[in-house]
């Protein structure tokens, strides 16, 4: 008997029909002889709607109350799903994150899981019931307040619970048939990736492929837990996330594609610190101040200093939502650092090419840059990792850049195979 953790995203339970459809699928999995634990997201765009509502009441909702509000979304879907399963003649019991033993730190809005103690889930399973757990939420070990794990956090709940229960697989059900070589909403000719390593999936997720969130992939990698990403609207096999990029002996490694896919991200902004004195410690003081403000930066570029002035420019990218705060923090330290000016651009986009094969195949960057040049796209910044190349371009160029790159690396399917079954893409 296998233990399967199934996570259903908001698009899969968007309305009453969706909830009934998902309930049938869960019951069928159990009837086939498996033990099933379900993690569910809020219905459709509920979380966005609750956020909008909070922002209509106040521009700065207190974190504790915002988490209390947002976690109600998952409580609605978990209870409705348990009712739908009962109608089909099986017992289901819903649990909040706290009841399911998801223990976190006390950072509201982006809490980290520090322990999972799923005693009540195991008991429900032992008694033959199907546990339905509210995703995206936990309870703080210190304050005992309700916390949320960050947007898309139900993915993390599912993987964390699967790891704690020693499940055989974590199935992530969504509105597309798996992980594709790019978001099929932007590139309809994208191909489904049958199997991808944790490392490549982590890079795809971190570079904007929101089909999985990075933290859930990190978690799965740590516990070597296989993830199967698939559609709740079809019976097709999806994408298996398992194995490691360095592990050439993997069976599927033989067929390993050089490039796994392309990803894009329009959510970042770029700050340029103009006229920084070219002396020891300048970068340390800039990034020290940014770090103290709790901001995670992504790419950094420092220009060659002009001999005449002894000054240089430093540009870096960061989450767009942190842009204004970071500008204010830096402005307050202008005299101390001694820079001349600050520029901010939130009309940028990041386009990334991901593939473990690029480590051993020369010419990948050359081909990437050539495809962008042919498409008339100007590159503002470049960074690389062992298995990724990313460029920052103007936001208006993202679509063209993504499609050109996808084509240049032969990722387009011969016939359109990607289906987007639901969701609003919000
Ligand atoms: P859910 O409601 O199931 O959590 P999400 O909206 O979070 O669904 O994630 C699924 C969406 O991710 C898809 O509808 C698709 O538009 C988007 N997406 C982005 N990049 C990719 C990719 N490389 N492969 C598949 N889907 C992707
Ligand atoms: N409902 C939450 C969100 O929209 C969590 C999730 O769906 O994973 O971010
Ligand atoms: Mg999601």
UniProtKB/TrEMBL annotation:
<dbReference type="InterPro" id="IPR001048">
    <property type="entry name" value="Asp/Glu/Uridylate_kinase"/>
</dbReference>
<protein>
    <recommendedName>
        <fullName>Aspartokinase</fullName>
        <ecNumber>2.7.2.4</ecNumber>
    </recommendedName>
</protein>
<dbReference type="GO" id="GO:0004072">
    <property type="term" value="F:aspartate kinase activity"/>
</dbReference>
<comment type="pathway">
    <text>Amino-acid biosynthesis; L-threonine biosynthesis; L-threonine from L-aspartate: step 1/5.</text>
</comment>
<feature type="binding site">
    <location>
        <begin position="7"/>
        <end position="10"/>
    </location>
    <ligand>
        <name>ATP</name>
    </ligand>
</feature>
<comment type="function">
    <text>Catalyzes the phosphorylation of the beta-carboxyl group of aspartic acid with ATP to yield 4-phospho-L-aspartate, which is involved in the branched biosynthetic pathway leading to the biosynthesis of amino acids lysine, threonine, isoleucine and methionine.</text>
</comment>
<keyword id="KW-0547">Nucleotide-binding</keyword>
<keyword id="KW-0808">Transferase</keyword>
<feature type="binding site">
    <location>
        <position position="47"/>
    </location>
    <ligand>
        <name>substrate</name>
    </ligand>
</feature>
<dbReference type="InterPro" id="IPR002912">
    <property type="entry name" value="ACT_dom"/>
</dbReference>
<dbReference type="InterPro" id="IPR054352">
    <property type="entry name" value="ACT_Aspartokinase"/>
</dbReference>
<dbReference type="InterPro" id="IPR041740">
    <property type="entry name" value="AKii-LysC-BS"/>
</dbReference>
<keyword id="KW-0028">Amino-acid biosynthesis</keyword>
<dbReference type="InterPro" id="IPR001341">
    <property type="entry name" value="Asp_kinase"/>
</dbReference>
<dbReference type="GO" id="GO:0009090">
    <property type="term" value="P:homoserine biosynthetic process"/>
</dbReference>
<dbReference type="Pfam" id="PF22468">
    <property type="entry name" value="ACT_9"/>
</dbReference>
<keyword id="KW-0418">Kinase</keyword>
<dbReference type="GO" id="GO:0005524">
    <property type="term" value="F:ATP binding"/>
</dbReference>
<keyword id="KW-0220">Diaminopimelate biosynthesis</keyword>
<keyword id="KW-0067">ATP-binding</keyword>
<dbReference type="GO" id="GO:0009089">
    <property type="term" value="P:lysine biosynthetic process via diaminopimelate"/>
</dbReference>
<dbReference type="InterPro" id="IPR036393">
    <property type="entry name" value="AceGlu_kinase-like_sf"/>
</dbReference>
<feature type="binding site">
    <location>
        <position position="185"/>
    </location>
    <ligand>
        <name>ATP</name>
    </ligand>
</feature>
<dbReference type="GO" id="GO:0009088">
    <property type="term" value="P:threonine biosynthetic process"/>
</dbReference>
<dbReference type="InterPro" id="IPR018042">
    <property type="entry name" value="Aspartate_kinase_CS"/>
</dbReference>
<dbReference type="InterPro" id="IPR045865">
    <property type="entry name" value="ACT-like_dom_sf"/>
</dbReference>
<comment type="similarity">
    <text>Belongs to the aspartokinase family.</text>
</comment>
<dbReference type="GO" id="GO:0005829">
    <property type="term" value="C:cytosol"/>
</dbReference>
<dbReference type="GO" id="GO:0019877">
    <property type="term" value="P:diaminopimelate biosynthetic process"/>
</dbReference>
<feature type="binding site">
    <location>
        <begin position="210"/>
        <end position="211"/>
    </location>
    <ligand>
        <name>ATP</name>
    </ligand>
</feature>
<comment type="pathway">
    <text>Amino-acid biosynthesis; L-methionine biosynthesis via de novo pathway; L-homoserine from L-aspartate: step 1/3.</text>
</comment>
<dbReference type="InterPro" id="IPR005260">
    <property type="entry name" value="Asp_kin_monofn"/>
</dbReference>
<dbReference type="Pfam" id="PF00696">
    <property type="entry name" value="AA_kinase"/>
</dbReference>
<keyword id="KW-0457">Lysine biosynthesis</keyword>
<feature type="binding site">
    <location>
        <position position="74"/>
    </location>
    <ligand>
        <name>substrate</name>
    </ligand>
</feature>
<feature type="binding site">
    <location>
        <begin position="174"/>
        <end position="175"/>
    </location>
    <ligand>
        <name>ATP</name>
    </ligand>
</feature>
<feature type="domain" description="ACT">
    <location>
        <begin position="271"/>
        <end position="356"/>
    </location>
</feature>
């Amino acid at each position: 008997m296998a233990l399967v953790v199934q996570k259903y995203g908001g698009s899969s339970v968007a309305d009453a029909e969706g909830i009934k459809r998902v309930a049938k699928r869960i019951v069928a999995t159990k009837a086939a002889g498996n033990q099933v634990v379900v993690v569910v997201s809020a219905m459709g765009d509920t979380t966005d709607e609750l956020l909008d509502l909070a922002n209509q009441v106040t521009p700065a909702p207190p974190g504790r109350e915002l988490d209390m509000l947002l976690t109600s979304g998952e409580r609605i879907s978990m209870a409705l799903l348990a009712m739908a399963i009962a109608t089909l003649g099986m017992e289901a019991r819903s649990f909040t994150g706290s009841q399911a033993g998801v223990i976190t730190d006390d950072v509201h809005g982006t809490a980290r899981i520090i322990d999972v103690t799923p005693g009540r889930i195991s008991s429900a399973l032992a008694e033959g019931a199907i546990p339905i757990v509210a995703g995206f939420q936990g309870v703080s070990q210190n304050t005992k307040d309700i916390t949320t794990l960050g947007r898309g956090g139900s993915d993390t709940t599912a993987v964390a619970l699967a790891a704690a229960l020693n499940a055989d697989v974590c199935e992530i059900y969504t509105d597309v048939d798996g992980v594709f070589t790019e978001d099929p909403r932007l590139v309809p000719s994208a191909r489904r990736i049958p199997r991808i390593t944790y490392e490549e999936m982590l890079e795809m997720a971190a570079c904007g492929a929101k089909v999985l969130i990075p933290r859930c992939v990190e978690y799965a990698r740590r516990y070597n837990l296989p993830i199967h990403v698939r559609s709740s609207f079809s019976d097709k096999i999806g994408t298996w996330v398992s194995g490691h990029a360095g592990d050439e002996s993997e069976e599927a490694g033989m067929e390993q594609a050089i490039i796994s896919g392309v990803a894009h991200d329009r959510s970042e902004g770029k700050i340029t610190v103009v006229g920084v004195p070219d002396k020891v410690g300048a970068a340390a003081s800039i990034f020290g101040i940014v770090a103290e403000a709790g901001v995670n930066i992504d790419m950094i570029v420092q220009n060659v200093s002009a001999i005449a002035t002894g000054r240089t420019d430093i540009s870096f990218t960061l989450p767009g939502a942190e842009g204004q705060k970071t500008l204010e923090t830096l402005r307050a330290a202008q005299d101390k650092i001694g820079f001349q000016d600050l520029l901010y651009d939130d009309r940028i986009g990041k386009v990334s090419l991901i593939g473990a094969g690029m480590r051993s195949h020369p010419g990948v960057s050359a081909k990437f840059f050539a495809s962008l040049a042919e498409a008339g796209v100007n590159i503002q910044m470049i960074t690389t990792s062992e298995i990724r190349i990313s460029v920052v371009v103007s936001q208006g160029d993202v679509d063209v850049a993504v499609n050109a790159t996808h084509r240049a690396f032969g990722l387009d399917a011969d016939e359109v195979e990607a289906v987007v079954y639901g969701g609003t893409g919000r």
